[in-house]
Amino acid sequence: MASSSRAQFSSRIGFILAAAGSAVGLGNIWGFPTQAASNGGAVFLFVYLLMVFALAYPLLVAELTIGRYGNANPIKSLRSIWPQQRGIAALLGIAGMIAVSMILSFYAIVAGWLFGFLVGPILEAIGFTTAANWLESFSTSRNLILMIVFMIMTIMVVRNGVANGIERWSTRLMPVLLVLFVVMTGYILTQEGAMEGLKMFLVPDFSHFSSGLVVSAMGQAFFSLSLGVCSMMVYGSYLRKDTNIPKTAAQVALLDTSVAFVAGLLILPAMFVAQHNGVEIYNDAGALLDSDTLVFSVLPAMFNTMGTGGVFIGILFFVLMVIAALTSSISMLEVPVACATEELQQDRKVAVWWIGGLITIFSSIIVFNFGDMFGLVISLTTEYAQPILGMCFALLVGWIWKRDQVLQEIKEGYPELEQSLFWKIWPWYVRVVCPVMMLMVFFA
Fold first, then answer.
1. Any idea where the domains of the chain sit in the sequence?
2. CB-hemisphere CA count at 13 Å for 41?
3. Are 66 and 406 in contact (CB under 8 A)?
4. Cβ(403)–Cβ(417) under 8 Å?
5. How many Cβ atoms sit within 10 Å of the Cβ of residue 277?
6. In whole angstroms, how large is the CA radius of gyration of the chain?
7. Is 229 helix (H, G, I), strand (E, B) or coil?
8. 154-166: pLDDT as tens digits
9. What's the topology of domain 12-443?
10. Among 43, 81, 52, 41, which residue's Cα sits nearest to residue 65?
11. Which of 32, 45, 89, 92 can pair with 79 through a Cys bridge, CB separation 3.0 to 4.6 Å?
12. Residue whose C-alpha is closest to residue 241's, from 76, 411, 1
């Protein structure tokens, strides 16, 4: 076990906001509403909610428990629960670290675009039209410069450590995010056309139900809780021993799901407001146009139809998106940084810069080979690496880690665990149900 002098979250609310910040990212605010809009709205919402609690929540408990038991970086934590196969355990930790670094490399590009769309309208309002157009139109130079700006922001937060960096910024940014959301949703729902979007999101039409929809919903639940890439394992390792893991994990999952739900309440009505204002959102066949870049086409077009108020609402929306992206990117960078500071005994400030630098270089390679690499890296990490690693962690906790050790670890913050319904279900559920469900997703 690592020493008890290791960094920790100073409060439970600090941890919940940081973990929810990690989970709440572009996946919830953009991925979820887009998926919902493409898959019949309410039906997708119901299946997604089911998946969060049937699959993602039990795995979240597993990853947090591994992290807190190891009280160290993922490589060391995985070794501590599988001492007979230290090499394989270390490889799993390294695989998670590489996967999360690759996710950050494409995430930083998208976050850079958001930054461009945030600053663009401000520049245009004060007369710098050329600069605004450059920020808002696709080009290699823009993608590169904005990605570097975003990576530097991420590095600066992680450099300051757990309590002073990650926790301090998550506890500031997450409440701002939630307030902005509520204000914007309230505003959008008063606009013409919004009720159509609301109806699509909340009233189920079961004709849309399909096996593909179930797979999309399961994938979305998985990515939105940052599972399978060691982020939650690292955050778990900063938890105090008296934390009730099942309860805390439920709070993180609830907060994350609430944000996805509110994002749906904002974005689906916003799509129909845009349509009402003359913006095309569906093609003749009834499929969404530009589903992956909707945020950069439909919403700015909608804000433009709202006059002066629209400019202000647009800036607020992209402030919100940048905050969501930043709270996720700091948790991703923390994974390799925690490994470097403990395995290589490096100073955090040194490790952050060279690791951040390497990810920035890889991200630059994606920028210069955008057509070939961008989609490929997303698909490799989110469709393959995350589910496979998530399944490995479930198998480790279910089959390899000694049951009484798992019990003792969770009991530290939950003394009445053995009598609880949670303990009667969770151990065999993680052993059998989670891996089987994930294999189904994978082969579908």
1. 12-443
2. 19
3. no
4. no
5. 17
6. 21
7. coil
8. 999 888 877 777 7
9. Hydantoin permease (1.10.4160)
10. 81
11. 89
12. 411
